[in-house]
C-alpha cells in the first residue's frame, strides 16, 4: 500500500496550449449546434408566417417576421464568432508548430557547438591536407609503376596480395648464402689466347 500511495504520478503530456485549444473547439461546437437549432426554428417560423398571411392574420405574421429578422442577425454574429474561434485555434496550433521548430533549431545549434568544440577548423583543414597529400602520393606511385612492370610481374604482385589477404606467406626463392667461387686466372686468360690465335687467320682471309 505504501508503494501505491508513494508512487510519483507521471507528468501530464497535455500542455496549457492543448487545454486552450480543446476549450475553444468545445465553444465552437456549441455555437454550431446553436446555429443549427436557430436555422431550423427560423425555417419553421417562415412557414408559419406564410400560413398566417393566408389566414388573414397579417399583424401576427408581421410580428413573427420581425422576430425572424432579429434571429437572422444573431445567426450572423454566431457565424462570426465561430470564424474567430477557428482562427484562434489555428493560430495556437501554428504557434505550437513554430515552438517545436524553434526547439529543434536550438538542439541543432547546441549539437553544432559541441562538434565545433571537439574539432576545430584547424583540425579539419589539417585532415583535408593530409588526405590530399595521401592522394597525391598514391598518384605518383601509380605513375611510377605504370608500364614499369611486365604482365608476369603484375600476376606475381596480385598473387602476393591474395596470399597476404588470406594470411599466407608467399614462397619466394631463397637467396644463396654461400660465396660465389672465383674464376681461376688460367680460365680468364684462355679466351685471350684463343682471340690472339684466330686473329692471323682473319687477317689472311681479309687479304
TrEMBL record:
Protein location: Endosome membrane
Gene Ontology terms: cellular component: ESCRT III complex; multivesicular body
Gene Ontology biological process terms from the UniProt entry: late endosome to vacuole transport via multivesicular body sorting pathway; protein transport; vesicle budding from membrane
Biased composition regions of type Basic and acidic residues, renumbered to the chain: 185-207
Organism: Seriola lalandi dorsalis
Keywords: Coiled coil, Endosome, Membrane, Protein transport, Transport
Domain of life: Eukaryota
UniProt name for this protein: Charged multivesicular body protein 6
Main location: membrane
UniProt lineage: Eukaryota, Metazoa, Chordata, Craniata, Vertebrata
Amino acid at each position: 500500500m505504501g508503494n501505491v500511495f508513494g508512487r510519483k504520478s507521471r507528468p501530464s503530456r497535455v500542455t496549457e496550449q492543448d487545454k486552450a485549444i480543446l476549450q475553444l473547439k468545445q465553444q465552437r461546437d456549441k455555437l454550431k449546434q446553436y446555429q443549427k437549432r436557430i436555422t431550423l426554428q427560423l425555417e419553421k417560423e417562415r412557414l408559419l408566417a406564410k400560413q398566417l398571411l393566408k389566414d388573414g392574420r397579417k399583424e401576427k405574421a408581421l410580428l413573427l417576421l420581425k422576430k425572424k429578422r432579429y434571429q437572422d442577425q444573431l445567426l450572423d454574429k454566431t457565424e462570426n464568432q465561430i470564424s474567430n474561434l477557428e482562427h484562434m485555434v489555428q493560430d495556437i496550433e501554428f504557434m505550437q508548430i513554430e515552438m517545436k521548430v524553434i526547439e529543434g533549431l536550438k538542439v541543432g545549434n547546441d549539437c553544432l557547438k559541441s562538434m565545433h568544440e571537439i574539432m576545430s577548423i584547424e583540425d579539419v583543414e589539417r585532415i583535408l591536407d593530409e588526405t590530399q597529400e595521401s592522394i597525391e602520393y598514391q598518384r605518383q606511385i601509380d605513375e611510377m609503376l605504370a608500364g614499369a612492370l611486365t604482365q608476369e610481374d603484375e600476376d606475381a604482385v596480385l598473387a602476393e596480395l591474395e596470399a597476404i589477404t588470406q594470411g599466407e606467406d608467399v614462397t619466394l626463392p631463397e637467396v644463396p648464402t654461400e660465396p660465389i667461387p672465383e674464376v681461376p686466372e688460367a680460365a680468364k686468360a684462355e679466351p685471350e689466347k684463343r682471340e690472339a690465335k684466330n686473329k692471323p687467320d682473319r687477317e689472311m682471309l681479309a687479304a
